[in-house]
Amino acid sequence: MAIYTDFNETIEGGSVELITRKPVLPGTIVEHPLTKEKMLRFKMDRNSYAEVKSMYEPQNDEMKEKTSTFHRNAGDALEADSIIVYVNGIIPVKFKVKEGVTHRHGANIATTRKHTIATICTPLAVHLKRLGYTANKITAE
Amino acid sequence: MMLDDNITIGSGSCDTGLEQTFVYTKGEEAALVGIVGHPKTDVKIFTGVCLGDGFVRRMTGESSQVIIDTLVQAINNRTKERNYFRLLSKLYSGETTEDEFESTINDNEGEFVVKMDKKPSMEELQVAFSASKDIMDVETTDDLCSLFSFSPYEFQKVIPTAKQ
């Protein structure tokens, strides 16, 4: 049970609570690259939070090995500006607005009931700067 | 004349009427190519030296094919997203039922489901990075991967090998 804030940190659960200022819906249907399940992919933008509410066990040992870096314990959470969420199924998740979550701002809240994977997004600018695709290069060598 | 940071082209004509062009590229695929052409016969003669097969791939059109394939993949993936939105709007407006919605998507996965299973090559990454600056709504690596059908996990493995 911990809160993760680094790029690419991933949680996986049978049920996950999602809180964000701005959900970017309806998203896209994708075949998840590891599980090969048909999942709805959408982004949570700004002040995003995702927490595992119920655990999910991978179907077999191969999948366990492939997803060994995923955090699956109930209470494991991601806290970041932008989080990508994959939810099993093809119907968009319905968010409810709750006012005054951070005193000043409201938030959109939803809890998934199906297999869910959430990952902290890496901004593309990180790679573009490192590989010299922008004039604004990283100065620390 | 400098086309960009990596390619320089020089040209001129000599007393015999032949037109001469020199192409010089630097970096990993450094090449010096001389092109001689006769203005009347329209025949061009190439000769040059290059490192690796990068320049040869460019001359033979293999690189162009990678660029075309990568961009076509991106267009098709955006079309799949559009197809999904169309169907979803029909569901929300009551034109179709939830069962029909699900069966339509399950029966026509090729039209609606974006695959993210490709291991990107360095060439494909170069195309994706260059194009991403001008494509709308590509802000994160996951956006890039879903647009070009790259697996984000393979992408993470390939990216440290990319040279600065």
In short:
With 141 residues, chain A is mainly β. Chain A has helices at 61-66, 124-130; strands at 3-4, 10-13, 15-20, 22-31, 38-54, 77-88, 96-98, 107-111, 116-120. In chain B, helix 2 packs across helix 5.
Describe the structure.
The complex is a heterodimer of chains A (141) and B (164). With 141 residues, chain A is mostly beta strands. Helix content of chain A is 9%, strand content 45%. Chain A is built from 2 helices and 9 strands, in the order E-E-E-E-E-H-E-E-E-E-H. Chain A has helices at residues 61-66, 124-130, and strands spanning 3-4, 10-13, 15-20, 22-31, 38-54, 77-88, 96-98, 107-111, 116-120. In chain A, strands 1, 2, 3, 4, 5, 6, 7, 8 and 9 form a 9-stranded mixed sheet that branches. Chain A is globular. Chain A starts with a strand and ends in an 11-residue tail after the last helix. The two termini of chain B are 25 Å apart. Chain B has 164 residues and is an alpha+beta fold. The mean pLDDT of chain B is 83. A 4-stranded antiparallel sheet of chain B has the order 1-2-3-4, covered by helices on one side. Chain B has 2 domains: 7-60; 62-161. Chain A binds chain B through residues 8, 26, 28-34, 38, 41, 43, 82, 84, 90-92, 119, 121-124, 127-128, 130-134, and chain B through 80-81, 84-85, 88, 98, 101-102, 105, 109, 112-117, 129-130, 132-133, 138-144, 146, 151-154, 156, 159, 162-164.
Which structural traits does this protein have?
heterodimer, A: 141 residues, mainly beta, nine-stranded mixed β-sheet, B: 164 residues, alpha+beta, 2 domains, four-stranded antiparallel β-sheet, 5 strands, 48% helix
